[in-house]
Amino acid sequence: IEILSEFWKVTDRESAQNVLEDIRHKGHRTKFNVLKGSIPDQGPIYTHSIEKFKTIFNFDLEESQQAGLSDDEFRRLADWFQKTYKHVGEEGILAWDLARAVHLVRLAFVADYLSDIQAWSEILKLAPLAEGQFKDWMSFSKSFLIGRTFWSGHDDPRMKASCEKLLGHPASPWEFISSR
After folding, report:
1. Which residue from 42, 38, 126 is spatially nearest to 83, judged by alpha carbons?
2. Residue 93 DSSP code
3. Torsion on CA atoms 150, 154, 157, 161, rounded to nearest 10
């Protein structure tokens, strides 16, 4: 309940469903895609591109939430976007948003904000978003990991190891479930 309240601003069924609706329609992928489009996919990143990048990054944040990143940190973030550009398919970081939504559903179910029928209903609403978006589990994994790095600001070796295990272990559910 504390995680739901503090990190998701979810305190009941209605607020959980509102956040899930936001993830389905925008999620982190919308901002990611706009930021990705604000810098060149290769070559030098000029000052005017960094300024545009900073403006977009801070656009939807309240004054009290401003990123507080230095110019060097914004430059590194823009460089990261440019370096990951070739690894991001058309799906962008959709897998990250799908995972966030499922995690939120699980937390809301455990907190008794959603019944089991409501929880499954929310998960099934994600299916049209995912259907046909990933060519395989590797593209899903990349989408998830890049999204997580975007959200957290750093790579997480444990997450990468989990994805590698899901990709390669013979008992992985990814071995039994087609990504198509």
Report:
1. 42
2. T
3. 0
Sole residue written with tokens 């982190």? 28
Q: Cα 22 from chain centroid?
A: 12
> Which two tokens mark 91?
């799906």
CA angle 123, 126, 132 (to 5 degrees): 135
Q: Is 4 helix (H, G, I), strand (E, B) or coil?
A: helix
Give dist(CA 135, CA 31) in Å, integer.
23
From residue 68, alpha-carbon distances to 44, 54, 72, 99 in Å are 24, 10, 11, 27
- Number of residues that make up the chain: 180
At 66 the pLDDT is 56
* Calpha distance 60→69 (Å, rounded): 15
| Torsion sign (Cα): 116, 142, 162, 150 | negative
pLDDT digits (tens, 9 = 90+) for 47-78: 999 999 988 888 876 655 556 778 898 899 99
Rounded CA separation 66/164 (Å): 35
CB atoms within 10 A of CB 153: 12
For the chain, how big is the Rg over CA atoms in Å?
Answer: 18
